[in-house]
C-alpha cells in the first residue's frame, strides 16, 4: 500500500516540486525527502531563516539545488501568486508537483468563543491562499507531463470534533477543493489528491496536545512513504483520493 511504498532512489529525478510550509515539521521533512529522491524543490514559507536551513541541509547532502520563495500566505495577494507562477515558469518551464502543506491551527476553543479575526486568518491561510496559489499555478502544472497536486487534511477534515472550530472547517474545505479539482481535471494528466498525516510529532501537534508523551508519536519521517507515492509516477493513475499516511 502507499503507507509502505518504497520509492526508488531516483523516483523524483527531473521533477520540480513546490512545498508550502517547507521550513518546519512535515513540510521540512517532505522537502528534504523529495530532494533525496532527485527532485528540485521550491521551498515556500514565511520564516526565511528556517527555509535557509532546509536549503543548506539539501545542498550539503548533495541534492539538486533548491529554490526559496519567502511568502506569508496570510497577507499574500493574487498578484503575488501570479508573479510567483511567472517566476517558476521562467526558471523551470513547468511544475511537476505541488504540496499544499502549510496551515494554521489557531486556538482550540468552544464554538461560541471563536473570534472573527482568528476565523478569518485560518480561512485565509488554509483555504483562500491555497485556492489563489493553485489557480495561479494551474498553467505551470499543465506544462508538466504528469503533474501532481497534494493537499493536506486532517482527521477533523472528515469528521467534525468539538473545539476544533475553524481549523476543522478549513480542512473540510480543503477536502472539497481537492474533489472539485480532481473532478474537473479527470480527463487530463493532472491528478489531485489529499493526505491526512495522522498524529505526527511537530510543533503544531504539541500546540494541540501539550501534555501528551511525544515519544509515542510517529515522526514526520515515518509518514513519508505516502508523500513519495503521491509525488512519484507510481500514482499517476490516482486522483480524487484522500489517503491516510498512517495505518489505524
Ligand atoms: P507545523 O506548524 O509544524 O508547520 C507548519 C509550517 O507551515 C511551518 O513551517 C509554518 O511556518 C508554515 N506556515 C504557517 N503559516 C504560514 C503562512 N501564513 N505562510 C507561510 N507558511 C506558513 O505543522 P505540521 O508540520 O504539523 O503540519 C503540516 C500539515 O499537516 C498542516 O497542514 C497540518 O494541518 C497537517 N496535519 C498535521 C498533523 C500533525 O499531527 N502534525 C495532523 C493532521 C494534519 P513557520 O515555520 O514560519 O511557522
From TrEMBL:
Q: What is this protein called?
A: NAD(P)-dependent dehydrogenase (Short-subunit alcohol dehydrogenase family)
Organism, by scientific name, is Aliidiomarina maris
Keyword set includes Oxidoreductase? yes
Please indicate which superkingdom the organism of origin belongs to: Bacteria
Question: InterPro entries given for it?
Answer: NAD(P)-bd_dom_sf, Sc_DH/Rdtase_CS, SDR_fam
Any idea which GO molecular function terms this record carries? oxidoreductase activity
Keyword set for this entry? Oxidoreductase
Pfam families in the record, alphabetically? adh_short
PROSITE patterns, per this entry? ADH_SHORT
Similarity remark: Belongs to the short-chain dehydrogenases/reductases (SDR) family.
Amino acid at each position: 500500500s502507499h503507507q509502505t511504498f518504497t520509492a526508488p532512489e531516483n523516483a523524483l529525478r527531473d521533477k520540480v516540486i513546490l512545498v508550502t510550509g517547507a521550513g518546519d515539521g512535515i513540510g521540512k521533512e517532505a522537502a528534504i525527502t523529495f530532494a533525496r529522491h532527485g527532485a528540485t524543490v521550491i521551498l515556500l514559507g514565511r520564516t526565511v531563516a528556517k527555509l535557509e536551513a532546509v536549503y543548506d541541509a539539501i545542498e550539503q547532502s548533495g541534492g539538486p539545488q533548491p529554490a526559496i520563495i519567502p511568502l506569508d500566505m496570510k497577507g499574500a495577494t493574487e498578484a503575488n501568486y501570479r508573479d510567483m507562477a511567472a517566476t517558476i515558469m521562467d526558471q523551470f518551464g513547468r511544475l511537476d508537483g505541488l504540496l499544499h502543506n502549510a496551515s494554521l491551527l489557531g486556538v482550540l476553543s468552544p464554538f461560541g468563543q471563536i473570534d472573527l479575526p482568528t476565523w478569518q486568518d485560518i480561512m485565509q491561510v488554509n483555504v483562500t491562499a491555497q485556492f489563489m496559489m493553485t489557480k495561479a499555478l494551474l498553467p505551470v502544472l499543465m506544462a508538466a507531463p504528469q503533474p501532481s497536486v497534494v493537499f493536506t487534511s486532517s482527521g477533523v477534515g472528515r469528521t467534525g470534533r468539538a473545539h476544533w472550530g475553524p481549523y476543522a472547517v478549513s480542512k473540510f474545505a480543503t477536502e472539497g477543493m481537492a474533489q472539485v479539482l480532481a473532478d474537473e481535471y479527470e480527463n487530463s494528466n493532472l491528478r489531485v489528491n489529499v493526505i491526512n498525516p495522522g498524529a505526527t510529532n511537530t510543533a503544531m501537534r504539541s500546540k494541540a496536545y501539550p501534555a501528551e508523551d511525544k515519544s509515542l508519536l510517529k515522526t514526520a519521517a515515518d509518514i513519508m512513504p505516502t508523500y513519495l507515492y503521491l509525488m512519484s509516477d507510481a500514482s499517476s493513475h490516482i486522483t480524487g483520493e484522500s489517503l491516510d499516511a498512517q495505518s489505524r
